[in-house]
Amino acid sequence: MPGDGNPTSGPTPSGPAADPGDALLAARAREGDEGAFETLVHRHGPALLKLAARILGDTAEAEDAVQEAFVSAWRRLPEYRGEAAFRTWMYRIVTNRCLNQLRSRRPAADLDTVPEPAAPEHEASPARAAESTAAMKALGTALAELSPEQRACWVLRELHNQSYEEIAEAVGITHQAVRGRIFRARRHLTEAMGAWR
């Protein structure tokens, strides 16, 4: 009977109904539902943090960029109409924030942007560890030498498997421009990392 206090008296949410999609959560958030927006933050925050860390090369800056991006997204929710997936929309906001930070930086020093997973102690020799550290340092330097747009395009393509269309939307350039920037980034990185092959 409804209202008898028995928790088994009605259907319990499970499956897709218990896990609303991004479009529904974004619509609820647009109407002021902070819980729905918090769910979106938890759902997409980790991937966006990885993206920002890889573009910026600094975890603290990446955390700030993602936090600011979510604050901006919350304020701009009335503008979000769902033409693009919420994830794509957030990738664009985070990428733009990272590009603005990169452009405002002075020439970057050493960046360890793509951390290598730690090897188990029994497998890592001091020589191998030193070689890996030097290679990662060289990669960080090579990435820092790319223009902000080249770096963002390369990270989105190579590390986040984004399509050229998604990258073009995130960075705010044409599909052809994305191809050109990725080509130049790959060529530069190939030359810069030639000694490490």
Question: Which helices and strands occur, and which strands form pairs?
Answer:
Layout: H1 22-30, H2 34-56, H3 59-76, H4 86-104, H5 126-144, H6 148-159, H7 164-171, H8 175-192
Describe the protein in words.
The protein has helices spanning 22-30, 34-56, 59-76, 86-104, 126-144, 148-159, 164-171, 175-192. Helix 5 runs antiparallel to helix 8 (175-192). By secondary structure, it is mainly alpha-helical. Residues 1-18 and 108-122 have low confidence and may be disordered.
Quick one: how many beta strands? Answer: 0
What is the number of helices? 8
What gap, in angstroms, lies between the N and C termini?
71 Å
Largest sheet: none
Report Rg.
21 Å
Key descriptive features of the protein:
single chain, disordered N terminus, 197 residues, mainly alpha
In short:
By secondary structure, this protein is mainly α. The protein has helices at about 20-30, 35-55, 60-75, 85-105, 125-145, 150-160, 165-170, 175-190.
